[in-house]
Amino acid sequence: QVQLVESGGGLVQAGGSLRLSCAASGRTFSTYAMGWFRQAPGKEREFVGVVYWSDGSTAYAESVKGRFTISRDNAKNTVYLQMNSLKPEDTAVYYCALRRYAHSDYNYWGQGTQVTVSS
Question: How do residues 20-33 score in pLDDT, each as one tens digit?
Answer without folding.
Answer: 999 998 887 778 99
